[in-house]
Each structure stands twice: as structure tokens, then as C-alpha cells.
Amino acid sequence: MTKKERKIVLPGGKCNFCGNRYSVQGMSAHLKKCVEKDKQDQALLQNKIIKLSSIFHIVVRGECFYWLQIEADGKTTLYELDSFLRDIWVECCMHLSMFRINDINYSYSPMKEYDERSMNVALHKALKPGTRFDYEYDFGSTTHLILKVLGVRTGKIDKKGIRLLARNDAPEILCSYCDNLATDICAECSEWTCKNCRKKHECDEEMLLPVVNSPRAGVCGYCG
């Protein structure tokens, strides 16, 4: 069966505050002036229980078309950021993970002989505006994310310490064999299939995983 060249429609994303859609670059500019976001920020400032803090605006990029924009309290730890990324994007089998910031590795169980440090460090101690850093989940079938601090402001954030500002819309990926949208991706060969073309795919059917809005789609046993 002749396979079609895979086509991908690059997605924009939706602002979690006003619901409008923008590209990842356009979203960064929009969030600085989003009226609905500003209303929430002003309401948080009136909360006397929550203390003022440094709020980090971070963009997270996965492979190809996957991205997130988040805000995090500067007192939030890398450990908590790791938990957030696991929950929203990568967790499948409790694999190990690591941040790399300015050539220093931060992990759960740091190895002194490799000059590693603990993830139990606050963002404001490890990051500053413009810092570009890396995150790796699963050192076997690795999912690699690139993060960048777009800016830091003084303000308040809810008790969770991290909030999602925006994320990419689910990409529309076409089946490798026809013009239908793919519903599955093969964990062995990374081909995309729709429901009608599953049997045309040469790998074992148990290797097919559901298409999900995550850079870990088709890897290990990740199902979203």
C-alpha cells in the first residue's frame, strides 16, 4: 500500500482567559494586554492572604507544534514544575526526569560525582528573565522540552503556584494512507493511521497508541 506524505496543519492556541486564539508568538504579545487576564490578576492582588511574589512567565516547547505558556510563583520549586509538566504532558510510567539550567543538571536524586543538584530549589534561585533551559523525561525514550523565561513581574498567583495561560490546539495530523485525520500513532515506526486504515499498517496493532495533544504522543505507553 502506497503511503501518503504526512501533512500537518500547524496549530495556534487558545488563551485560557478570553478564549481568543493566536500563534505561540502572538500569544506572548496578547497575554501582556489581555483584559480578562488583567481582571484576574487585579482580583488576586486584592487577596490579602496571598503574598506578593516574583511571577515567572515561561514558554514551554515540545517537538514540532506542541507548546504551553505558563506562569509560576518564584517560590515554586523545580520539583513542582516537574510535577506540572508530568501531569499535563508526559507522565506514563513514572520515568526519571531532569532539568538542565546553565549547564547544571537538577534531578530527584542528584549524584554528587556528576555535580548534579536537587530539584528542590525555588525558581527565583535558578532562573532569571531570558533564561533558556531544558527538561528531559524518560532517559530511554526521551521526551525533550525547551523552556524559556519570557519575563518576570511582581504580583500574586493562586495557591497552586503554577497556572496554565495557554496551550496549542490539538494538531490536525492526516493519516499516512488517506486524507482522514489520524486517530492512532505507531509506537514502533511513528506512522499515523485513521480508524479505517489500521489494518493497512504493517506493525502489530498493539503498537498503536491514541493521538493525543502532547509531545509524548506515540512514545512508550503514553495515552494522554
Automatic annotation (TrEMBL):
Lineage: superkingdom: Bacteria
Q: Which Gene3D superfamilies match?
A: MM3350-like (3.10.290.30)
| Record-given protein name | Uncharacterized protein
